[in-house]
Design brief:
Helices cover 60% and strands 0% of the residues. It is mainly α.
Length: 60
Amino acid sequence: MDSDDLEPRRPTGEPRNLEAMSVEALEEYVGELEAEIVRARAVIKDKQSARASADSVFKI
């Protein structure tokens, strides 16, 4: 079990009403989402690297 499994998930809240947003606001929102995706992928990469390192220590 991973320690992240024990942490409560953040509530996602209600989806934004995209129809009410201006083009500029939508572009800003997309930028925020893309930045969050980059951040999540970096964490995934770090965790995969840590797991690979741990696996190599315990291989016989």
